[in-house]
């Protein structure tokens, strides 16, 4: 008779795990549920920024809206990016790590709550508070890594010290007169961007290429969701108001073609094999500011087009068309620079910039959103049919020669 086995009790999660560098070639390294929650909460801030950009552009306050959007989106992107690369190298998934990450999420929600005030009153106080809260949580994480990972202690301490000094600068900037607002922001942004370059020169952290590429891909999907939301809003408005319903439904369909095409072009080829050194990884990672920011801005542009169709926008057809065309062109050029041009050969390397130029011309004609949709669909067809020849390059990630 077969002996009945007792039910297996799953091992309990340890309360504390020494934070050691993870293997950069660890198999089956995927995003964790905590990272997915982190992204989900960040989408609130992305949605707030895109919505305020939409209203400023529709109200013909382009310069104010664009500047506020770029500054706010930097805070969103930079906090997300720093956590992503740290988690790729040091995710211990113990209780202190989870609590510190939840503190970062709380900071993201505080920052999201301050975005309306930043756009409407040029008051970045709450945004700065949320940003500093997120960044100081990263200091706690780096100090843990410095304590338990002697091989990377200098790198971890550089990160912790550099982030702390820059956050003091962000707080001090709030006391500066309004004339110093933009120069102070630009100096602090440059300082924030320089911290990883300086810290990684001591010894590169063991980030995982496939994990980093997956995390960036997931966030790309999140920001593309803003465009889908705008298309859904167009459909809802058409059904609810019955005003220009055919035009709005057509606009929504074109918006969906645009976002589907952007998704296809970004995910056409795996990205992890492009992260072959710290230098290329930093270029790729920093360059995604333009990809993320433009992808979210496309949704704002489509919302402006909906307002124009309803005669609720205070801009003309040219400005309404460019509200979508410009971010689409930025997205295409960014994907071309980061994903296509350095790694492929063939006619497709020319198709991306040519399409971007044609997209920028589209607002001068009728139905610019539909023309942009056709151009992107044609580019996707070209990618599928022509493919492109990958450039030979060494495999693996060279963590031994860090550089900025």
Task: Please sum up the structure shown.
This protein is mainly alpha-helical and 404 residues long.
Describe the 3D structure.
This protein has helices spanning 33-58, 62-90, 95-121, 125-148, 153-173, 181-200, 209-241, 245-266, 278-309, 317-340, 348-361, 368-386; strands spanning 344-345, 389-390. By secondary structure, it is mainly alpha-helical. The protein folds into 2 domains: 33-200, no CATH class; 209-390, I/LWEQ domain (Up-down Bundle). It has a two-stranded antiparallel sheet with strand order 1-2. The longest helix is centred in the middle third of the chain and has 33 residues, at 209-241.
Which descriptors would you attach to this protein?
404 residues, I/LWEQ domain, 2 domains, two-stranded antiparallel ribbon, globular, disordered C terminus
The strands making up the biggest β-sheet line up spatially as 1-2
CATH class of the largest domain: Mainly Alpha
The unreliable regions are: 388-404
Work out the number of β strands: 2
In the CATH hierarchy, the third-tier topology of the largest domain is known as I/LWEQ domain
Gyration radius from CA atoms, angstroms: 23 Å
Total tally of structural domains: 2
Largest sheet: 2 strands, antiparallel
**Shape designation:** globular
Order of helices and strands: HHHHHHHHHHEHHE
Number of helices: 12
Helix and strand composition category? mainly alpha
CATH architecture annotation of the largest domain: Up-down Bundle
Distance between the termini: 66 Å
Estimate percent helicity. Answer: over 70%
């Amino acid at each position: 008779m077969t002996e009945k086995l007792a039910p297996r009790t799953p091992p309990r999660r340890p309360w504390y795990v020494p934070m050691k560098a993870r293997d950069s070639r660890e198999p089956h390294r995927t995003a964790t549920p905590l990272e997915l929650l982190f992204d989900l909460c960040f989408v609130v801030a992305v949605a707030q920024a895109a919505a305020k950009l939409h209203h400023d552009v529709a109200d013909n306050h382009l310069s104010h809206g664009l500047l506020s959007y770029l500054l706010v989106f930097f805070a969103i992107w930079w906090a997300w990016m720093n956590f992503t690369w740290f988690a790729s190298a040091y995710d211990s998934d113990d209780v202190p790590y989870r609590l510190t990450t939840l503190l970062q999420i709380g900071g993201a929600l505080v920052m999201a709550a301050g975005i309306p005030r930043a756009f409407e009153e040029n008051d970045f106080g709450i945004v700065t508070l949320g940003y500093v809260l997120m960044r100081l949580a990263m200091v706690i994480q780096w100090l843990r890594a410095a304590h338990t990972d002697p091989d990377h202690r200098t790198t971890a301490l550089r990160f912790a010290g550099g982030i702390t000094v820059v956050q003091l600068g962000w707080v001090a900037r709030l006391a500066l007169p309004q004339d110093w607002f933009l120069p102070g922001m630009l100096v602090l942004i440059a300082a924030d961007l320089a911290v990883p370059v300086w810290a990684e020169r001591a010894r590169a952290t063991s980030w995982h290429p496939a994990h980093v590429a997956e995390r960036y891909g997931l966030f790309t999907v999140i920001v593309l969701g803003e465009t889908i939301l705008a298309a859904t809003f167009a459909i809802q408005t058409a059904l609810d108001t019955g005003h220009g319903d055919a035009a709005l439904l057509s606009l929504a369909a074109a918006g969906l073609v645009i976002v589907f095409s952007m998704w296809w072009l970004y995910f056409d080829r795996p990205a992890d094999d492009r992260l072959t050194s710290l230098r290329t990884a930093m270029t790729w990672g920093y360059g995604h500011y333009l990809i993320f920011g433009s992808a979210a801005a496309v949704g704002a542009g489509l919302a402006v087009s909906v307002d124009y169709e309803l005669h609720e926008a205070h801009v003309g057809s040219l400005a309404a068309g460019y509200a979508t065309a410009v971010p689409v062109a930025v997205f295409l050029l960014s994907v071309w620079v980061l994903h296509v041009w350095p790694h492929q050969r063939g006619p497709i390397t020319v198709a991306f910039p040519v399409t971007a130029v044609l997209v920028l011309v589209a607002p001068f004609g009728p139905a610019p959103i539909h023309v942009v949709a056709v151009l992107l669909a044609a580019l996707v067809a070209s990618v599928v049919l022509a493919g492109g020849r990958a450039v030979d390059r060494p495999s693996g990630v060279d963590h031994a020669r860090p550089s900025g």
